[in-house]
Design goal:
Layout lengths: L3 H5 L2 E5 L8 H16 L3 E4 L5 H12 L4 E6 L12 E5 L2 H11 L2 E4 L4 H15 L7 E4 L6 H12 L12 E3 L2 H19 L8
Parallel strand pairs: 1-2, 1-5, 2-3, 3-4, 5-6, 6-7
Helix pairs in contact: 2-3
């Protein structure tokens, strides 16, 4: 990424559904999150397309004049949102996930489908393997992540996963809670990265 402004901005990757058929309250939630992140000066990294919760998130960030970074696999290039501050085109979904984790300083997962859950588990696994320590926040609106949290608990109970899995993510039940967690993270990294400084407004 060549733009020095983008390089120094604190980047929050948002995992979100591409379906337009989800409950309208979840589409509105994506819009609210995009607005909140943009107004606080965070750059938003996301799946790059115009569809579903992803599209609503992108439109909200764009409407607020925020920084929007799309990451799309080559096969979905024609679905990319326009305008974007930066577009990264990858060979496939696996490369897109690697690009998400390379570019981003923190992750927020909105309720989503198979792709979103796969992205969440990839970040959890990367953290467990010590590949990075970037924070992951599950926005557990309407208990959407309760089944996944139950699965993780069962994996720990069955000794398929270590207790440490519970330290790889935080759970928020509202946009405001998720954003507060990100703000705390950005302050923590501020001395090293000199990224976005959270507004007190």
């Amino acid at each position: 990424m060549q733009n020095s402004h983008l390089e120094h901005q604190f980047k929050v990757c948002v995992f979100a559904a591409s379906s337009d058929q989800v409950d309208p309250t979840l589409l509105a939630l994506a819009e609210t999150l995009g607005t909140a992140l943009a107004k606080r000066g965070f750059a938003v990294v996301y799946g790059g397309t115009t569809q579903g919760c992803m599209g609503r998130l992108a439109a909200a960030v764009n409407q607020c004049g925020g920084t929007l970074i799309g990451v799309v696999p080559r096969g979905l290039r024609d679905l990319a949102f326009d305008p974007l501050s930066h577009l990264s085109v990858t060979d496939d979904l696996h490369d897109r996930q690697r690009e998400f984790e390379r570019l981003s300083d923190a992750f927020i997962a909105l309720p989503g489908g198979v792709g979103t859950v796969a992205e969440v588990f990839s970040v959890i696994n990367s953290r467990l393997l010590g590949m990075h320590s970037k924070p992951l926040i599950l926005l557990n609106a309407r208990g959407a992540y309760d089944p996944m949290l139950g699965l993780l608990k069962a994996l720990v109970h069955g000794r398929f996963a270590a207790d440490a899995v519970k330290t790889t993510f935080s759970v928020a039940r509202s946009v405001s809670s998720a954003v507060r967690l990100v703000e705390g993270t950005s302050r923590y990294f501020a001395d090293d990265r000199q990224p976005y400084r959270a507004s007190t407004a």
